[in-house]
Amino acid sequence: MQTISPGNRSVWEAPAVASWRQWRTWWVKRRWYERNRRRRRRFRLDRHAAEGGFFIRYPIEGEALEALDSGRLEIGKGTLLEPGCWLTLSAEARIRIGEGCFLNRNTMLAAVELIEIGDHVMFANNCFVGDADHRYHDPTTPVTWQGFEPQGPVRIGSNCWFGVGCVVTGGVEIGERCVIGANSVVTRDLPAGVIAAGAPAKVIREIEFRTR
Q: Does the model's pTM come out above 0.90?
């Protein structure tokens, strides 16, 4: 019970009680949105990880299990997914992650067609890689119902390093051994061996590689 005092009088209101139908709808949503927290699903994810030589630190969000089961998600040996990573794929999409990669907390990969990531790529916290844009052009349909428009595959070369909060958009190819500054938005192809930053990201300079 709670007391509400409009002006000088008090009104007692009983807390609302959800109906059985409302609870049933809530339960269906919970089973879907929280499905990766079920022990059986985690066991199946761990089995994929053990077989593939990679490791997942929970929680993980999205359709990782379904995509691993169908072969549409490939994760290389030695790759680590930190807590909060979100891998989401459309029914025909594919994501390929190479060996020895590091996806830090809350990194999201969203594929409608194809995302390819080379070996030993590092993503800092809160990075996003997606190969599509959300539609918004129909004024008669809620924007949340309009779906996605593919923008072309994303391909990231080996040995790249992305700072905190980077975004990589669809149709972009990034060469090997690039460093992308924090909070950058990569909207165009980048050649190999450069440091890039900004929104949109631009090449700052070439990397001077050192030989021992």
A: no
